[in-house]
Write a structure and sequence with these properties.
Blueprint lengths: L6 H20 L6 H8 L3 H5 L5 H26 L3 H18 L2 H7 L8 H27 L9 H21 L6 H16 L3
Helix pairs in contact: 1-2, 1-4, 1-6, 4-5, 4-7, 5-7, 5-8, 5-9, 7-8, 8-9
Length: 199
């Protein structure tokens, strides 16, 4: 079991959350140490006690993305029996996360994916590859259970699964939240299952 977070870990997460909120509302250009401090309710020097500067905070946002994705995988593994049910639960959690944290799609598709900061691109790539690998594992388990068709390559199924989520989250953001994510989740999942499920 994970030990209770220390005060330092809690503050670092608050800072990363505040940075995400700023990115979500104003883009990466809006991010500043002063703005982060105001959102957290501390002075700017309080941010510098945890991070060297804005670039380190951006790295913390990527770390938070990775930890949230991993936490979702661990939750469905612990709570949900059966591969298809796990994928369904993960789909719902992933949609909630991306809609609730609209900076995450921005992180994935905007400046973090640009080649001018190759070390951050590598971190983002590794985060997404690790997540795809976890989905691949669940698909493989479903094939062993004979619940998921054996003729679909697990990597292909995993990428299709990710494709259910990210475009919908972007549409939600671009439509200023007019895109009905609840309706989408309820209707997209049965369509995806028809592709995967053993007849």
């Amino acid at each position: 079991m994970r030990a209770t977070k220390t005060d330092t870990e809690t503050r670092q997460e608050q800072i990363a959350e505040a940075a995400m909120e700023m990115i979500a509302t104003g883009g990466l250009a809006s991010l500043s140490i002063t703005g982060i401090a105001e959102r957290v309710g501390i002075v700017p020097s309080g941010v510098y006690r945890h991070y060297e500067g804005k670039e380190a905070v951006l790295d913390a946002v990527l770390d938070l993305l990775r930890s949230r994705l991993q936490a979702n995988v661990e939750k469905v593994r612990g709570d949900t029996p059966g591969a298809l049910a796990r994928l369904r639960a993960l789909f719902t959690l992933h949609m909630r996360m991306l809609v609730g944290k609209p900076a995450f799609p921005y992180v994935v598709f905007d400046q973090f994916a640009q080649a001018d900061r190759p070390e951050r691109w590598v971190r983002l790539r590794d985060t997404m590859c690790a997540y795809v690998h976890e989905v691949v594992r669940i698909v493989e388990e479903g094939q062993l259970e004979e619940a998921i068709r054996a003729d679909i390559p697990p990597q292909t199924a995993a990428v299709m699964f990710i494709g259910l989520v990210l475009p919908a989250a972007m549409l939600h953001r671009l439509s200023e939240e007019d895109f009905d994510t609840s309706f989408y989740v309820d209707t997209a999942w049965p369509a995806f299952v028809r592709v995967l499920k053993v007849a």
